[in-house]
Amino acid sequence: MKKVFISSALITLLFxxxxxxxxxxxxxxxxxxxxxxxxxxxxxxADGTIPAWTxxxxxxxxxxxxxxHHKDPFADEKPVLVINQSxxxxxxxxxxxxxxxxxxxxxxxxxxxxxxxxxxxxxxxxYDYSIQNSTRAELTQDGAGLVNAKVGAPFxxxxxxxxxxxxxxxxxxxxFITREYIQVTPQVDGSYTPVKFEQESLQYYAQENxxxxxxxxxxxxxxxxxxxxxxxxxxxxxxxxQVEDPRRAWRYDPGRRRASRTPTVAYDAPALASDGLxxxxxxxxxxxxxxxxxxxxxxxxxxxxxxxAYQLHSEQLNYDDIIRPGHINQDYxxxxxxxxxxxxxxxxxxxTNIYSRRTFYLDEDSWQALLVDHYDENGQLWRVGEAHAxxxxxxxxxxxxxxxxxxxxxxxxxxxxxxxxxxxxxxASELTYSGFTASALRREGR
Length: 446
Hints:
Blueprint: H1 2-19, H2 25-28, E1 81-83, H3 97-105, E2 111-113, H4 124-133, E3 138-140, E4 145-147, H5 161-169, E5 176-184, E6 195-202, E7 215-225, E8 233-239, E9 248-253, E10 258-261, E11 293-306, H6 319-322, E12 335-347, E13 357-363, E14 369-375, E15 381-392, E16 397-407, E17 412-418, H7 438-445
């Protein structure tokens, strides 16, 4: 009995510590002074290879028209460093274990490093709410739920790994998003069949006065090609506490012409049309409830990460230019030296997931997860995730244009978000809750 009492006391203590994790007003005063409003270090690094943050991209180029692909502000720049098998050991202190493994596994894999530009920028309200959130946001249910926060980063000055990953989960991506993209799962020889998706997303967390208080976002994903998959639709209601109120999801099956509730769109269930190379919680580099893992904030470090990937986003490229056996064409990938938060997620002894451990590298300027290393049940490095981000300067928002998850064992990968030949993202659509209901899903199917 004594042992049980001590364990319960410890659990209560941990719960209290998590639920009361707010910073003092005097600590919050760093935001907008020595720290950016989102909590990044305002100053550059000592040797000048990382510049100070001066607000990121403030406006779109004069000749940019919303609806076009985003022009590369740095098109004339050349790499300052190329890392490959010949020199990887000289630079491993600024690379993740996954990046090193990719270089060692593929002789043609390279990381082309360009000058660093801290281009991340967001609407003013995101900064204002991030500062407000810092002294009032709380986690509940042992970190599985979020309260007293909206629009901005809930924990711009994180005290632990849970707070840091919540910053990623809730990061600003606009309020309304309509987009088209291609997903591919190339075979070992590089052959692939493109799967085309149409997506609508209503981001309640990003709104000052949301229609619904207990939802982070609504998400609808429809396959339009190839013909054997076309017509499948996935609808997700993402809640702010998935232990207390689990994620709600429905699938529309065109073969049966019916929409049905599905409990399997969560955690490590296979992602739609992923050929077993990705899980549901791999979406957006990491999504869903964080309750299955213990989260540790390891600190911050300088790393070569995907950034300002305007070339990979270019409408001048076709998908055959990008897709290669084993990995995407690294000639078009751009890496820069940035500071990232390192967060270690270790599977709880009482939980199950195909990934026993994950290491996240979160951009200090945006909270976007740029790199994620995934380990199997034996603790071996298994999958390597990369998010190639750009600033969508008409919003503005820094968000990935292409997510890639490499499977080191299968020597294959899934590339999610290819948009070079698709209609560009629309952040101005007025979406409402009525378009994200099960009945709306059935009507669309008919």
